[in-house]
Amino acid sequence: MGTCSECKDGFPRLNNHPYRFKWGGPACQIGNVAYNKATDQSGVYGGLDSSRGVDGITGSSSSQSNCAHPDNDEGVAAWFYVDLESVHQIYNVTIYNTFNSGGSYRMVDFSIRVGNTSDVDEHAECAHYGREAVVEGGDVTLDCSARGRYVSFRREGGEAIDLVAICEFVVIGHPLTTAECPAGRTGTFCLDVCDAGSFGVGCSEECGHCKNDLCSAVDGRCSDGCEPGFLGDRCNEKLIVQTDITYTCNYSVKCLKSEGSSVLSSVIILDLTGTFAWLSGFSVELSIHCDVWCPENWRIDSQIENTDPIKLTELLLRRT
């Protein structure tokens, strides 16, 4: 997933919050994450089911047909929840009240809760609203810094039936998984760059053998080159020096044995072997040493013929 240059409009089109009108963040992942998600509530009053609380319509003065209306009995808590489908970072919750007469009494003394199961009794409270009534057609925003999959509204039951109408339930947040961040980014808002030595989506990949651990947080390319002994854009190709390979020198060495000034005989010693190689920096330096020798009591003639010069381009390295 790349970084968004322009985010699409979010739903619903709400005011007074930077992420209500449009999606925001580097990956366009911050916004109303409750819109059109699965919901449930404590019964259904007047056919006004829970899905109406996340349909993107905040209600109107002429009807509350777009509002969710949990059914509750005297002394029984009324509740509503939205399933965000995965664990999210929640920032705040806005609830829109009905325009109907008496609506202000339906939006008092309630709590916002967050959990990871559909059992609202297991949800932990992250915000509470007291007895100051929300006016008809009004809304209230409560800060709720929590993490979870389910976000719920709960109003405890009183001595009389306390009706609840939720015309829109807006949850501002973003998926918690860092896989939702673009490559090279992590953190709550995807604004943090991967730590040195890591890169990719979710910063899940390790850099190669880059000098000073300097690699691109996006694709892992080494900006300052490789440590000695490694190759490639990401410095993950290792050079292995072959020090256990025997090379044939193929020198023809004339050995002489003489008594006085008389040459008695001569022999040719072939296939003298030996090798030594090492790695320095990024270049391969090669030194091949062949022991030249003659049998005891023989001497090396001053004329040594190189019949087959050694090719110094022999491969001493292999890549892994």
Automatic annotation (TrEMBL):
UniProt signal peptide: none
InterPro entries in alphabetical order: BG_Antigen-Binding_Lectin (IPR051941), FTP1 (IPR006585), Galactose-bd-like_sf (IPR008979)
Alphabetical GO biological process terms: regulation of cellular defense response; regulation of complement activation, lectin pathway
One Pfam family recorded for the sequence: F5_F8_type_C_2
Residue ranges annotated for the Fucolectin tachylectin-4 pentraxin-1 domain, each copy included: 30-180
MF-aspect GO terms: fucose binding; metal ion binding
Ranges in a coiled coil: none
UniProt keyword list: Calcium, Disulfide bond, Lectin, Metal-binding
Subunit field text: Homotrimer.
Protein family: Belongs to the fucolectin family.
Function: Acts as a defensive agent. Recognizes blood group fucosylated oligosaccharides including A, B, H and Lewis B-type antigens. Does not recognize Lewis A antigen and has low affinity for monovalent haptens.
Protein name, as recorded: Fucolectin tachylectin-4 pentraxin-1 domain-containing protein
Organism: Capitella teleta
